[in-house]
Amino acid sequence: MKRLFFKIFLWFWLGMIVMSAALVTSAALTQSRSAEDQRWRQKYEFPLQMRSRHEADLIENYEVSAAVQYIDSLEQREPIGNFMLDDSGHEVLGRKVPASVLSVVPQLDRIPPAVPLFLSNDRIMAEKVVGPSGRQYKFFMKFPPRPFFPHSLALFFFEDVGSEGIIRLVVLLVTATVFCLWLARHITGPIGKLRWAASQIANQNLNTRVDVEVTGRHDELAELGRDFNRMAKRISALVGAQRRLLADVSHELRSPLTRLNLALGLARQHASPKNLEHLDRMEHETERLNNLIGQLLSLARIESGVDLQESKPFELGALVQEVASDGDYEARSRNCHVKFDQSPDCYVEGTREMLRGAVENVVRNAVRHTGNDSTVEVSIERQPNSNGAYAVIRVRDHGSGVPESELADLFIPFHRVADGIRNDPYGTGLGLAIAERTFRLHGGSVSAANAVDGGLIVTLQLPAFETETGTPIPPK
C-alpha cells in the first residue's frame, strides 16, 4: 500500500511542480524578453544614429568601398547586417537586402528623418538619414534572431526571475506538496482499510467490516466498501449456517450411534462365531464415525469460544511431555518413537484440555505420517521478542512432506493433500484445523513448513508468561 501511496503522491507532486515551474518560467521569460528588448533598444539607439550618419558621409565624401570597408570591420566584431537604400530603393552598398528588411520600408517612409524605428520581433532597427549633400537614405541594421532562452541561466534565474519569482515558486511547491500528500492519503486511505478488512476475512475473522469512514464517502470507493460489507455479511451468514448445521447434525447423530453400539453389544451375545468378524467390522466403523462426530463437535465448540471460560495459567511443557509420551506408545506399533526435548518452564494461559487436544492432534498426525523406523521430534522453548515472549512447540516428522502449494491449506477443515502423498484413509482432515483454531483462539498461531532434509515441521506458538501466576514477560 505504501508503494501505491508514494506512486500517487509522486505523480501528482511532479505534475504540480512541472506546472508551477512552467508558470513561473513563462512569466519570467515574458518579463525577460520585454526587459531584453528594452536593453537592446537602449544599447543600439545611439550607435544607430552614429553609424547611419557616418556611413552616409563616407558614401558621399569618399568612395562606397570606404563605407563597405568600415562596415566589414564592424561586422567582424559583431554580426549585425547593415544596409543602405537611396531614394529610388537601390542598395548603395551592393548588398542583397532580405525580404524582412524590404517589408519595413513602407513603415519607415511614414516616419520623419532622424527618428529611429525599432522592430523587436523582426530584430530590425531603421532610420532615415540625410547626407552632406542633402540626399536622403534609408539605413537598416538587421540583428541575429533572439534566443528563446537567455544565454546565461544563472543571470536569467537571479535577475529575470528574481527573488519575487523564487518566493512564488517556493510557495507553489509547498502548497503542491501539502495538497498532493492529502490527495494521495485521501485516495489510498480507504484502499488500505479495504485491504486490512480483506486480510481479516481471509484469516476467518468473519465479523470484520469496513468502517463508516470509507462507506460514508461519496465516491466509488464508498460503493466498493459497501459492497465489501454486504459480501462479508453474506459469507459470515453462510459459514455460520454451515457451522450450525455441522454441530446440529453431529449432535443429533450421537443418539443413533449410542443405540447402534448398544444393538451391537446385544448382537454379540447371540451371534455365532462366523458372524463375529462382521460385528467387529461394524463396531470399528462405528468408532470411526463416533470420532468424526466428536471432532466436529470439538470444532464447533472451539469456534464458539465457550471453553475459554475455564482459561487459567499452567505450565505448557508438562502438557506437551504427556502428549509426547502417549504418542510414543502409539508409535511403537510401527517401530517408531517420539522424542521430546524441553527447555525451561513455559507458562501460558488457556484452557488446558483444549490445548492438550490440539497438541495431541498435531503429534498423532506426525506419528501417522512419519516413515517406518523413524523418530518424531517434539520440542518446546521460550523465545523472547519485541512484544514479550512466546512458547514455541515444534513437531517434526520424517515422512514425505507436503507440496509447497498445499502447506497453507493444511489447516482447512476436511482438506486432503491433492497428490495423496499424506492422505490417511483413517483421517478426517479435522485434526490440524482444530489445532490451528484452538491456538488462534488463545492468541497464538500454527504454521507448517517442509524440512530441508525431508519431512514436515509444524510450529505452534502461544504467548508466554513469567510464572504460573500469569505475569506477562516484559518485551525486549
Features:
Beta-Lactamase; Helix Hairpins; Heat Shock Protein 90; 5-stranded mixed β-sheet; 4-stranded antiparallel β-sheet; 11 helices; 15% strand; rod-shaped
Structural commentary:
- With 476 residues, the protein is of the alpha+beta class.
- It folds into three domains: 2-142, Beta-Lactamase, CATH 3.30.450; 220-304, Helix Hairpins; 310-463, 2-Layer Sandwich (Heat Shock Protein 90).
- 56% of the residues lie in helices and 15% in strands.
- The protein has a five-stranded mixed sheet with strand order 6-8-9-11-10, with helices on one face.
- β8 and β9 form a beta hairpin.
- α1 runs antiparallel to α2 (64-77), α9 (316-331) runs parallel beside α10 and α10 (352-369) runs antiparallel to α11.
- The protein starts with a helix and ends in a 13-residue tail after the last strand.
- The model has no long low-confidence stretch (mean pLDDT 77).
